[in-house]
């Protein structure tokens, strides 16, 4: 449960302006474009706005509730990155380590240079794929669902599209990806990819534990995130929001069980790039740990310096994503945005064309979920809904506009 815990006015918000959030996003539901949503805004550790609207399952007539379970997809990535950096703090690996030290199939990678998916021409990688490449999405790996390059076409030919491959565990997935060409020389560009899934396998090799055990031991249990899990058991399936996609021609949200059903059974591979289901209350605890510099309620997950290091722009030359992105899909805009170790980082808010703070960091998920942490304003915000793909509607920039325009101190 996430009721407001403080008077918004005492924390610098105009309550009437905060109310615009609900009025604005309610229209998406009333117009049939979203099934329902949940929004939480905090400042200085206090919840100043928490609201729900619409239905978690429109066909069953079930409303969004405080304990609704949401597929967070790529919002899994920051948890995996935090778990990896907690191990790094213990000296278990170096950021410059070659990934092949942990996954031998990544030795001697090849890089696509020209040709078609039927006849690709590759050259040897000049630089090995290193752990920091995985954390920053500069590895040269990709996603099959991008539909922007020959390499992602090769991924699809190998069975890697939006739905998971049922025949491979995480080790098998990584070996399969290692056999495919990289999209670019490691460290030379930015491309959203399966890199965090590979990072999850590195975590397994380093610890000798499964990825779910490590994330539970190092993040979920210490933070009391008791509702975050890799799939939903039948006894709790009614709490899981249905997944939707825009209907052809109308844009009306249409149920998308073909993909949505995967959250209702144990997956063949626990993937650190997009496997978790969570609640707003649970993810709120994760964001508050981040806002507090790596600690919450006496449980320290990361050191303060480590977290500050993770949330700096690590892209070569300090450039932004617009300069380095390969142009495929990403859970972010590109202009003025850098990338750290597991998070997108705002450099200059002006090119983004919406309100934000320099140093704000964030990420989102394929079903239009979002969180951000703003250390300068001591603010966090989260949006949960289940419409894919993300970016179908400008939900994320609009939430920024509404939240920051309500902040008047």
Structure description:
- With 409 residues, this protein is α+β, with helices and mostly antiparallel strands.
- The chain has a domain of 218 residues: Beta-lactamase (3-Layer(aba) Sandwich), CATH 3.40.710.
- It is 28% helix and 17% strand.
- It contains 12 helices and 16 strands.
- The strands form 5 sheets. It has an 8-stranded antiparallel β-sheet, sandwiched between helices.
- Strand 1 and strand 2 form a beta hairpin.
- Helix 2 runs parallel beside helix 6, helix 2 crosses helix 7 and helix 5 packs across helix 6.
- The model has no long low-confidence stretch (mean pLDDT 96).
- GO terms for molecular function: hydrolase activity.
- It comes from Rugosimonospora africana.
- Pfam families: Beta-lactamase.
- InterPro entries: Beta-lactam-related (IPR001466), Beta-lactam/transpept-like (IPR012338), Diverse_Enzym_Activities (IPR050789).
- Keywords: Hydrolase.
């Amino acid at each position: 449960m996430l009721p407001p815990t403080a008077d918004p006015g005492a924390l610098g918000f105009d309550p009437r302006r905060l109310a615009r959030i609900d009025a604005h996003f309610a229209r998406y539901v009333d117009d049939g474009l979203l099934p329902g949503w949940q929004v939480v805004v905090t400042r200085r550790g206090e919840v100043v706005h928490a609201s729900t609207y619409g239905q978690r399952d429109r066909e069953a007539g079930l409303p969004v509730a405080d304990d609704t379970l949401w597929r967070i997809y790529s919002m899994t990535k920051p948890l995996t990155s935090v778990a990896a950096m907690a191990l790094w703090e213990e000296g278990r690996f170096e950021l410059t380590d070659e990934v092949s030290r942990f996954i031998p199939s990544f030795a001697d990678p090849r890089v696509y240079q020209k040709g078609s998916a039927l006849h690709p021409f590759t050259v040897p990688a000049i630089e090995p794929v290193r752990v920091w490449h995985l954390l920053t999405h500069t590895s040269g790996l990709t996603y099959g669902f991008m539909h922007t390059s020959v390499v992602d076409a090769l991924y699809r030919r190998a069975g890697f599209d939006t739905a998971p491959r049922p025949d491979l565990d995480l080790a098998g997935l990584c070996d399969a990806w290692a056999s495919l060409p990289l999209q670019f020389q490691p460290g030379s560009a930015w491309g959203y990819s399966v890199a965090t899934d590979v990072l999850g396998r590195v975590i397994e090799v380093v610890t000798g534990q499964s990825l779910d055990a490590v994330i539970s031991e190092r993040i979920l249990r210490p933070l009391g995130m008791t509702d975050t899990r890799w799939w939903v058991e039948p006894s709790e399936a009614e709490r899981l929001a249905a997944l939707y996609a825009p209907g052809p021609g109308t844009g009306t949200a249409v149920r998308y069980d073909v993909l949505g059903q995967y959250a209702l059974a144990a997956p063949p591979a626990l993937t650190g790039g997009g496997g978790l289901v969570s609640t707003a209350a649970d993810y709120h605890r994760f964001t508050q740990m981040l806002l507090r510099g790596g600690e919450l309620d006496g449980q320290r997950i990361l050191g303060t310096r480590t977290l500050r290091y993770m949330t700096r722009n690590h892209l070569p030359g300090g450039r932004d994503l617009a300069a380095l992105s390969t142009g495929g899909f990403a859970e972010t805009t590109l202009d003025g945005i850098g990338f750290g170790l597991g998070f997108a980082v705002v450099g200059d808010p002006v090119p983004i064309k919406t309100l934000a703070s320099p140093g704000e960091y964030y990420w989102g998920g394929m079903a239009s979920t979002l969180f951000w942490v703003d250390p300068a304003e001591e603010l966090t915000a989260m949006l949960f809904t289940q419409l894919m793909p993300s970016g179908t509607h400008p939900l994320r920039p609009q939430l920024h506009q509404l939240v920051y325009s309500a902040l008047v101190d």
